[in-house]
Amino acid sequence: MPVTPARARDLALSFDDASERPHFDRTAFRTPRKIFATLAGDGSGLNLMFDPDHRDHYCALAPEVFAPVPGGWGVKGATRCDLAKADEATLTSALQAAHGLAAPKPKKG
Description:
Aspartate Aminotransferase, domain 1, alpha+beta, six-stranded antiparallel beta sheet, single chain, 27% strand, 4 helices
């Protein structure tokens, strides 16, 4: 069952310290440290700010749902999720991974 843009937003904001801000023509979801996902203005897709390993994992897991963002961002790991083809469990897993990469680093004690 496809994930609606409203549900994708709710999922992204369910993580610790997640907030929402405008980002050009998109909505950005971020930790205090950095953006972990952006939602297209028309709600069609979500870009996840992965590293290359996570990009490769999710693109192999569900190639009909995930694809590298074209250009340099995709080379660095940014990955597009087609919400019309995504299921909630897979999207939640992907958001959790992206959020973990963007979370503040623990302070060395």
